Amino acid sequence: MANHFLYNKQEISVGDTVVVQQKIQEGDKTRNQPFQGIVIAIKGQLERKSFTVRKISTAAIGVERIWLVNSPWITNIIVKKHGQARRAKLYYLRDRTGKAATKVKSQKKKV
User: Fold this and answer.
1) What is the distance between the alpha carbons of residues 102 and 32, in angstroms, rounded to a whole number?
2) Which of 20, 56, 64, 73 is the most buried (most CB within 10 A)?
3) What is the mean pLDDT of residues 3-24?
4) Are 35 and 80 in contact (CB under 8 A)?
């Protein structure tokens, strides 16, 4: 099972709050669109590794996006907060509503 992956020398694991900046092409224009949420699953191995990010959108609707780690459409991944997950897949967050849907324990920094 894949519980973490490396992207630009930073380790991203299940439970982390991340901002994925994706390149969007509309006609002949391109722009970066951020998607901030919690990494709820990492699947696959080597070049076929993918990850799922879930956020709570307006009107308390959950939105999930799945990306390949090596996708050319991802321009950057920024880790906002490291989370401490005791499970490999956080699918139980799908059943929660409100603030409970975004609660994952914060990982304490080692001194």
Assistant:
1) 24
2) 20
3) 92
4) no
Q: Global pTM?
A: 0.86
The b/e string for 14-49 (b: 16+ C-beta within 10 A; e otherwise) is bbbbbebbbeeeeeeeeeeeeeebbbbbbeeeeeeb
- Mean pLDDT to the nearest integer, 71-84: 93
Q: Classify residue 88 by its DSSP letter.
A: S
For residue 106, CA distances in Å to 14, 37, 60 come to: 12, 14, 22
CA separation (Å) from 45 to 32, 38, 61, 68, 108? 27, 20, 30, 11, 28
Q: Looking at residue 71, what is its pLDDT?
A: 92
Task: Tell me which architecture the domain covering 4-90 has in CATH.
Answer: Roll (2.30)
